[in-house]
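Appendix B. One record, verbatim.
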Amino acid sequence: MLALDSGLLLEDTRAPVSLTDLASLSPARLAVASLRLDVHPLVRQRAHVDFLERRTRYRSSSRRDSQEEPLFDLPLTFLVPGSPTLLSIAHLVLVQFNPHCQSPQAAQAAAELFLQRAAETQDEREGSQAPSRSQTLSIECCRLVRQGMGKEAVGGLALEVTDEALVVTRGGQFLLQVLAEDITAFKYLLASPGARAVADFHCTLEVAALHVGLDKDNTVSDSTLELVIGEFGSGDARFEQLETTVEKWTTSQGFAIQVIQTQPAAENQIPTKRPRSPLLTPPASRSPSEAAQRQDDSAALVPSAAKRRRSDGGPSESKSSRTAQSTAMQSAREGPWRYVGETAAELEWHPGAFVRQLALLQAIAPNANLFLPPVTADDLALLSRQVVRRQLPKLPHRVPDCAPHVNHNAVWRLALENAYRLGPRIDLMTSRLVLLTDEYVDLREYAKIGSKMVDARNAIGVAYHQVLDKVLPIRLAQQNETTRAQVEKLISLVHNMRTDPLFRRTHLLDERGGLIRTVWPTFSEADLGPSVFARFERALADIVEYEASAGAVV
């Protein structure tokens, strides 16, 4: 299915299509042609019919095995969820043929989302200026660490960044590699080396991986690869290629990226330029006071009860940590608040959904190191509300690149495109216009805040991986025949929460259609076990209290 999805995204959604072309088109191109509004209606209708006729012949053919067509092998009858974002790429294409889809709006939304994602893929391929498929960075040191023990290599080392892996070589000879699909977390440790290097920076990469390949037959499991890149210049093309590649991997593989920046404490330090990387240098706040305010308010999506009460055990003087500026903007519908209404955001993009999943996982695995990126109470209030499509500005299409030599923040771009996901597709250059200029300041601010939900989706994927693939298998192996049944229940529950959008929706929403406010009756002690149930119940009570104090819509 992944190969089919990838192939569909690579289809050229801008190539001209005529009636005479249809007979030579592949099934995928036929299906895509029937979606495209820029194709003549007669051609679209004929492509639609041809696809169904060819599929019928294929499925009744005795030579089906020798002429495999994955798109024809998929059933046309499947459940169409309320949001097309819950569908795979292949199913987005097939909604138009689904006899259970009686809503033209649902079919159109699925088509638009597929065309948007396919066009993004094509934009990225066309916009890539890399002359080769890989870039090489010199590295000072390579350490492979597992369970506190490690091996180190220095001298003559290089890091090659390919489309599929990070490859470390020594003197041109293969040393080890980490495939993108095996990465579970990626961390940049970035620091300026001080006054002696005005435009240089020092970076170490920490890559947590399920497997690190030493050669064709030997791998090291559950380890961390530390790569000391050393000094590099601001705007180094090779380092930017590394960042761009890792950004693509985190989107496809779902691991989290962390950036840790440190500043030297030397006196009379010469101010240094920062790298242009969107990952390593988020834009500064508008003023020092605002920066301090946002830093003070920043916390986990839901802080623990202990953090929200005075040390004497009494309640805090003010339950809400909303800033006056944000509250005023909400009342006046100014700033990013102009784009949201008073209905709750959809489940897959609601901060409350992420924090409830994390609370459940933390209750199941209380000793696991699980996290969500920090947000402020202001951001929680904003992001809990659904974007109102008609209130978004109409953006220009196919504009020239506003800043050819400046990188945009890819995560902000994902958040921007999510806001417009049910409207016209936003191409790459339009996104850059919003993110890199002052033409749409409020929209850029909304994308910046919304990017925290992209980070949250990545982080919750890592949390599911840790609990389902690491914690619970070990716990299961320690059980006897009479106690393993409860752990098997938890494994099944976490697996379904991770992989099944409808199961997740059923267990995160209550009968009123809002996010659950109590553990029972959605979950029972029999489902979770008494201790897990009690921990989740306490955490959920804190979540509900904090959401109310922040003015979130749930």
